[in-house]
Amino acid sequence: MEQNKLPGLLVFIVPQIVELIIQEYSCNDEKATEMLYESELYAALEKEETKLWHLSAHALFEMYKEELQTGHISYPEEA
């Protein structure tokens, strides 16, 4: 994948993850977005070489929850 396509993919996946955070943690859009942007998961998602961009919003959200609970994320085999 070309590096310049990654931001376009994030435009689609980030709002889906934010919506899941809102639903799970009963917070507003601004807080949920802040929570995601400050996460290790988001930092990894921004790096094309992690290949996290191909995972579903639900799979990424599960990784986000793991990070909150344990302080780290486990990368799936296919990532």
Q: What does this 3D model show about the protein?
A:
This protein has 79 residues and is an all-alpha fold. It contains four helices and no strands. The longest helix has 20 residues, at 6-25.
Characteristic key phrases:
79 residues; 4 helices; mainly alpha; single chain
Name the average pLDDT.
Answer: 90
Give the end-to-end Cα distance, rounded to a whole number of Å.
Answer: 14 Å
Kindly state the percentage of residues in helix.
Answer: 55-70%
Number of domains: 1
Order of helices and strands: HHHH
Content of β-strand? under 5%
What is the radius of gyration?
12 Å
Structural category = mainly alpha
**Major beta sheet summary:** none
Shape: globular
Our count of helices gives 4
The beta-strand count equals 0
**Uncertain runs:** none
Concise structural overview:
Helices cover about 60% and strands about 0% of the residues. With about 80 residues, the chain is mostly helical.
Indicate the topology:
Elements: H1 6-25, H2 29-37, H3 40-45, H4 57-70
Helix pairs in contact: 1-2, 1-4
